[in-house]
Amino acid sequence: LKPQVTTEQGSVMVEARKVAQDGSLSKSSSTLAAEISDRILRACSTVSRAKQFIALLRSRLAGRGGDGSSSSRAGASLRLSGRQVSVQDVDTAVHVVRKTWLERRARAHVAQSSAVAAKTSNAEFIFHKIILKCEDLRGAARFLTMLKQTVGKANRSGRVFVADDIAQAQTKLKRWFQSYHAAWQQQPARSARRSGSSSGSSGSSGDSSSSDSSGSESDGSSSSSGSSGSGKGGMRSSRWWRRRARGLREDAEDAFYESDDSDLSGEEEVDTEDLGRPVAAKDLMPAPPPPPPAADDGYPTDWAGAPLVGSASFNEFAGRLMRKVGVAAAPLRATLDRRSRCPPLQPHQEAAVFLLHPKSPITRLLVDHPTGSGKTREMIQMLNNYFFDPRPKVPIFPKEPVCRNFYAELLRWPNRYRDFFCCLKPSLVSSLAGGRDWRVARDYLWNVSGLGDEQLRELCREMREVLEMKGWFYMGLMRRAPCANFQKLFPEEHLPGAPLRALRYTSAGGQHTALRDDGLPKSALFKIGFDKTDGNVYSKKIVVMDEVHNL
Prior knowledge:
Blueprint: H1 7-21, H2 27-43, H3 47-62, H4 72-75, E1 79-80, E2 83-84, H5 87-117, H6 122-133, H7 137-148, H8 163-185, H9 188-203, H10 208-223, H11 238-257, E3 284-285, H12 314-325, H13 347-355, H14 375-385, E4 393-397, H15 400-412, H16 416-424, H17 453-468, E5 473-474, E6 477-479, H18 480-489, E7 503-504, H19 505-508, H20 524-527, E8 542-545
Parallel strand pairs: 4-7, 4-8
Antiparallel strand pairs: 1-2, 3-6, 5-6
């Protein structure tokens, strides 16, 4: 915000200063001004937006089409937190906003000056990034291998690395980790605690980047070598290996470039559709096959006679209905029943899952539960309610590790999406099902804690691709061939009505929402159900947002 202001703005600021310094300012007025300034600072990211916001407040105070008068009649049209807002409140808020922005500008200038003064070479940049994220050379090897594959290309940091940058960083990292562990081992109290990592470091001091990365690669592939893959006899296709290598590289990039204090992960690659081989119209289905009658989930009641959602009597009606059918009627279950196949939902989970259902009139719901209360399981059960719905399912999370955790939770809890994945990848889940046919353990809670980190990553990646249903749709319509093939192979199992794909907030609001030159979405997922006349890629989608305050 420029310090120079127009005469009119200057007079407002002078008045605001007088108001701010006025000792007779009431506590109520001061609180209101603070509330207004807080809303402006949260809602407006630019000066022009803030000016529009303030102009709107002033026009409301003056009455629509008024002359700026602050009469009590006009001022009565603007209330906040049940209290009437005055011109004085707005003037004081304007002063607070201006002061806050000037302070921000000063801090940004200092930070920018510091950044310029501390500008580092590419090798130093890589070195400092890695020592903050790794405790030994074995962990650093993963990042070095990823960086070697990006040589000569602009990366997320805005830099372009060359092979010499990475070699210099690797040499410096070797020296640093050796001296670091040597110094650590000199302290007897800590030597026992760190012996594992120091031995791993010294053992990989030769050619760490190639040997360690290939070791982890072979570990990952052997752990899932029982997978049926896409070829005959369990052989993996070269396309699968390329996809897996790309997934490992993307995971490493996320971890390397992501700031530790960042609330959100960066954008991911858009799921574009391969249009190389056109599909005839006769081979496409206008709608997915209807669910079989046996697929009824036993929803306990209907909402006949319910008042309009949002009306004064709706909450009372919904509460009465839930009590009638016994939803959320039991007390909180404080102990785990280890004899049951799967722990039942807690009362607060039952309520949310009951309210957001295809047979409920509710289409939008805000769920406010504390950390650790089982929100992820709630999300899974809500999405399970809409398994047969022809609209794509888009759960949205702040960071990539949280997206991955969502797929891990999908593997843990019984749900139809897990069943669909098991049909197509049975060998990948045999260990989770206790070595039995997964159908026998269909209703059980599966323990994924015994899987190694790389094995779980691979399993979540496979699950994401299966539930994304790549190859099942063409230009937003389901193809007949894969659908008929699935029903032939698994006549007792159910086919999802549409894909499910977890996204990060940055992707969900970024390039995934972009349209092509022909007016269709770039994303294959968002093509499904898209209406050109509407233009909003989220129309006709089922969206569930975790940690929604990130919006």
